């Protein structure tokens, strides 16, 4: 890879997920730390992400935001790491499916934090809470990997997201959720990412 890779983040943000993915790739990258309400909303960063949110990456002239997109983009940069199943393989469908499933899960989690009644399932992207959680439980129960027989970005995104919501007690602590969230945390890249962001918080 010849183009430079820049990572925009804050150590207490969803950027921790993107950091883990970056560490899995082994690619060199520069970190740009942004602060809430100031540099994150400044014109310089809004030129990267008009939303004024992190994380984002810039690879040469290409900008990618949103953790799911960042994970899939980075996985494709390092095919030798096998962080994404080959295009056209039977595993590629589940890979896309479960990475994308974190969108409806987040919608549900955010809806629950408001303390109001959940929206009509016909209007809510996540449908009903029961259906969503049962579907996720069925996917994770007794599973080590979601797309094939080795670790991919799908495992990373789901483990990180489920772990985050469990930590803040937004997600029901079903055994399948707890087991999957903790299964991949001992990975060396996950540990390195946590160490980096924890050090940045303490600085």
Q: How would you characterize this protein structure?
A:
The protein is of the alpha+beta class. The chain folds into 2 domains: 78 residues, 3-Layer(aba) Sandwich (Glutaredoxin); 92 residues, Up-down Bundle (Glutathione S-transferase Yfyf (Class Pi), Chain A, domain 2). The chain is 48% helix and 8% strand. It is built from 9 helices and 4 strands. A 4-stranded mixed β-sheet has the order 2-1-3-4, with helices on one face. Helix 1 packs parallel to helix 3, helix 1 crosses helix 9 and helix 7 packs across helix 8. The longest helix is centred in the last third of the chain and has 15 residues. The chain starts with a strand and ends with a helix.
Question: Total strand count, please?
Answer: 4
The biggest sheet, with number of strands, parallel, antiparallel or mixed sense and barrel status, is: 4 strands, mixed
Amount of helix: 40-55%
How many alpha or pi helices?
Answer: 9
Mean pLDDT: 95
Strand order in the sheet with the most strands: 2-1-3-4
What integer value in Å does the Rg equal?
A: 17 Å
Beta-strand content estimate: 5-15%
Taken in chain order, the helices and strands follow as: EHEHEEHHHHHHH
Tell me the CATH architecture of the largest domain: Up-down Bundle
Q: Which segments are poorly predicted (pLDDT under 50) over 5 or more consecutive residues?
A: none
End-to-end Cα distance: 31 Å
CATH class type of the largest domain? Mainly Alpha
Q: How many domain regions?
A: 2
Note the overall shape: globular
CATH topology of the largest domain: Glutathione S-transferase Yfyf (Class Pi), Chain A, domain 2
Structural class: alpha+beta
């Amino acid at each position: 890879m010849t183009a430079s890779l820049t990572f925009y983040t804050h150590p207490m943000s969803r950027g921790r997920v993107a950091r883990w993915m970056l560490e899995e790739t082994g690619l060199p990258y520069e970190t740009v730390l942004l602060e809430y309400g100031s540099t994150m909303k400044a014109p310089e960063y809004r030129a990267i992400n008009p939303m004024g949110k992190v994380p984002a990456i810039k690879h040469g002239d290409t900008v990618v935001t949103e953790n799911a997109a960042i994970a899939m983009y980075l996985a494709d940069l390092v095919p030798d790491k096998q962080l994404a199943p080959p295009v056209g393989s039977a595993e590629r469908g589940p890979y896309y499916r479960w990475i994308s499933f974190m969108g409806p899960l987040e919608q549900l989690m955010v809806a629950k934090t408001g303390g109001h009644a959940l929206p009509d399932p016909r209007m809510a992207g996540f449908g009903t809470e029961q259906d969503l959680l049962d579907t996720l439980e069925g996917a994770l129960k007794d599973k080590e990997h979601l797309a094939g027989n080795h670790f991919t970005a799908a495992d990373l995104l789901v483990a990180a997201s489920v772990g985050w919501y469990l930590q803040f007690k937004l997600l029901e602590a079903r055994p399948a959720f707890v087991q999957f969230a903790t299964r991949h945390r001992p990975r060396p890249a996950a540990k390195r990412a946590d160490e980096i962001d924890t050090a940045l918080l303490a600085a």
